[in-house]
C-alpha cells in the first residue's frame, strides 16, 4: 500500500465531503471560483480511489495537473477574499460574489483556504508518489 497515495485520496474525500456539507447542509451557495475548485476536486476522489485500489502509482501523471490548477485557482480565490487590491480583480460578476466569506475561522481560514490546503497536500503527496514511481 502506497501511503502518500492513500493520504492524497483521504484528503480528496475529506475536501469533497466538506464541500458538499457546506453547500447541502449549511446551504452556502458556491460562487463561480468555488465551482471551478469543485470541478477540479471531485474527480480526484474517484480517480485516487481507483489508483489506491489498483496500487497504480502512475496516476500522478493525470492527477498532478488537476491538483496544481486547483491549487492556483484556490490561491487566486483566497487572495481575492483577503488582499484588498485583489477584490477588484474578481471575475465573479453574476450570482454569489467571490469575495464573500461564509466562514472565517481564526481570522484567516475560509473555504478557499481549506481548498488550497487540500490541493497543496494532494500535490505534495503526488510528488512523493512520482519520486517513488520514478525510482522503480
Structure description:
This protein has 136 residues and is mainly α. The chain has a single domain (3-135), classed as Bromodomain-like, CATH 1.20.1550. The protein has helices spanning 3-25, 32-54, 60-82, 111-135. Helix 1 (3-25) packs antiparallel against helix 4 (111-135), helix 2 (32-54) runs antiparallel to helix 3 (60-82) and helix 3 (60-82) runs antiparallel to helix 4 (111-135). The longest helix has 25 residues, at 111-135. The model has no long low-confidence stretch (mean pLDDT 94).
CATH class: Mainly Alpha
Strand tally, please? 0
- CATH fold group: Bromodomain-like
The global form is elongated
Summarize the helix and strand pattern as letters.
Answer: HHHH
| pLDDT < 50 stretches | none
Largest sheet features: none
Helicity level, as a percent range?
55-70%
* End-to-end CA span: 15 Å
The whole-angstrom Rg is: 16 Å
Number of helices: 4
Mean pLDDT: 94
Strand content: under 5%
Tell me the domain tally.
1
**How does the helix and strand content classify structurally?**
mainly alpha
What is the CATH architecture annotation? Up-down Bundle
Amino acid at each position: 500500500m502506497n501511503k502518500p497515495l492513500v493520504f492524497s485520496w483521504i484528503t480528496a474525500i475529506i475536501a469533497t465531503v466538506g464541500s458538499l456539507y457546506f453547500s447541502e447542509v449549511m446551504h452556502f451557495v458556491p460562487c463561480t471560483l468555488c465551482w471551478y475548485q469543485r470541478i477540479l476536486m471531485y474527480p480526484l476522489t474517484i480517480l485516487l480511489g481507483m489508483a489506491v485500489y489498483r496500487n497504480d502509482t502512475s496516476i500522478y501523471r493525470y492527477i498532478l495537473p488537476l491538483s496544481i490548477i486547483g491549487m492556483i485557482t484556490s490561491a487566486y480565490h483566497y487572495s481575492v477574499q483577503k488582499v484588498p487590491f485583489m477584490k477588484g480583480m474578481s471575475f465573479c460578476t453574476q450570482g454569489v460574489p467571490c469575495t464573500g466569506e461564509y466562514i472565517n475561522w481564526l481570522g484567516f481560514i475560509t473555504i478557499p483556504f481549506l481548498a488550497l490546503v487540500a490541493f497543496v497536500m494532494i500535490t505534495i503527496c503526488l510528488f512523493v508518489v512520482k519520486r517513488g514511481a520514478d525510482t522503480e
